[in-house]
Amino acid sequence: MNHRFGCVRLDHPRVGRRDLLHVCGLSLLGFGTPDLARLEAAAPAPRAAKAKSVVFIFQSGGPSQHETFDPKPDAPDSIRGEYGTVQTRTSGVRFCEYLPQLAARSDKFAVVRTMYHPAGREFRNEHNSATYLLHTGRAEMPVGDTNASIVNPRAGRFAWPSIGSMIAYANPPAPGVAFPAVVELPRTNLMRYPGRGAGILGPNYEPWGVDLAPACRSPDAAGSCPNCFSHDDPNDLTRAAGKGPKAWWDNSSCRDASFRLPDLGGVSVSAVELENRSSLLDRLDAMRRTAAAPSTASHAVNRRRAIELLATLKPGGSNPFDLTRESPAVRDRYGREEWGQGFLVARRLVESGVRMVQVNLRGWDTHQNAFRDLKGKLLPSIDRCLSGFLDDLEQRGLLDETLVVMCGEMGRTPKISPITVGGKNASGEVFTPGRHHWGDVFPCFFAGAGVRGGQVIGRTDRHGGVPATDGYTPADLAATVLHLMGIAGDAVFRDAEGRPHRLTEGQPIQPLRS
């Protein structure tokens, strides 16, 4: 079906399953006991699953299909770009030349080249709305919302839950796992885009947003610290970031790739306090009294889970955020930077029983100086970090039970052009060209958990602008993730007014399955 003329599936939402602690501030707000009992009874029982966990790597900004997994070497210069290609381990398939390590591992993963947004152009080509649509697996925005309004709270909005919150609802962690179902890292304070929360499911199904990386002082942060950069960086090397007299910003605060331990909503708890459960309960009760009081039963559940989590994170415990427990060789394998160390934390969280880890990778909004920054920063980083992650998962026997998904909220325009004619950077240099927002087609990476590697699914037109074969939507992405996690996409729940809703209207991407 030509995706521009396909039907747009209707929105229908889902509501939550079991009470999940939103630890990012130890939120004690949520459904009352009757709501929890009703939702618990309505939730579908998980089916046999290929995946125990999913790691979703979000390339915030939208990576170019041409400079990653769908190069067009025979296209005109204005489409092809500056880079060559590299042969992958899969016969007849070529990637961008700056992804050689991933190319050598193409038998371990599959790439869907024909993802697209069926929403209107005013939505599919803008960050806020495209991020909402991708994370929620929807074809349309909430009624009454625009790209500008979706980032702000609005009374009466029917906000769909993120894929992570759907997983938290339908497939919560196994008994004895102290961690929330979904953890997002490593810089959630810089992620302002909508659609990543629980929406209609409510605060009990929110992801736990964890800020692990050192503070970043870049005026326009892009890639990963300590390898961070800005697309506004001067080309004049004497003006490189640092403490030099000509430096255009001071990046000395974020040169260290060591992550700090997570901040539990400003609550500092010592090991002695953890041993003194009565004292800790008193502190949590005091916090509860400063907020709107939930039901006694709901508060008791949240309080117990808070203690379990804090006990897990105490010094000497099995803290997945403490990377000093990993050997230097393993840390080097992932890459001593924000992205690589984020992947390493993701592996440790998967080992701890977390259902979904979202690793946010900023910097893919390459409007200007694109070929400088992709070649110099973004592509070498993702090539090394993701390759090390896949190798480690496989060698530890985790790849068969961990689904790895990576994509951005959109692709980039086939045609290369400046963001503005004559636009200049901080040094007064004219920007070199890049590619711009394009929701008509974008690639998505899948590995592990029953995904048949060594294949490319879908073909784009000769300019890489639209699907030339079957296209797949964010709804299909959501259905694929849920299916591999053992969650029936057609499962129905009823909201507070008794209206039925499905988790997703999409269909699993069949060629991915082995």
Distance between the termini: 24 Å
Largest sheet: 8 strands, mixed
Total count of strands: 14
Beta-strand fraction estimate? 5-15%
CATH topology type of the domain at 3-11 and 48-142 and 165-236 and 330-512: Alkaline Phosphatase, subunit A
- Biggest β-sheet: strands ordered side by side in the sheet: 6-5-7-1-8-11-4-12
Rg measurement, Å: 23 Å
- CATH class designation of the domain at 3-11 and 48-142 and 165-236 and 330-512: Alpha Beta
Helices and strands, in order, run as: HEHEEHEHHHEEHHHHHEHEEEEEHEE
- Percent of residues in helical segments? 25-40%
Query: Mean pLDDT across all residues, rounded?
Result: 81
Determine the structural class based on helices, strands and strand pairing: alpha/beta
How would you name the CATH homologous superfamily of the domain at 3-11 and 48-142 and 165-236 and 330-512?
Alkaline Phosphatase, subunit A
The 3D shape can be described as globular
Number of H/I helices: 13
Based on the coordinates given, report the CATH architecture of the domain at 3-11 and 48-142 and 165-236 and 330-512: 3-Layer(aba) Sandwich
- The poorly predicted ranges are 1-41, 266-271, 291-298
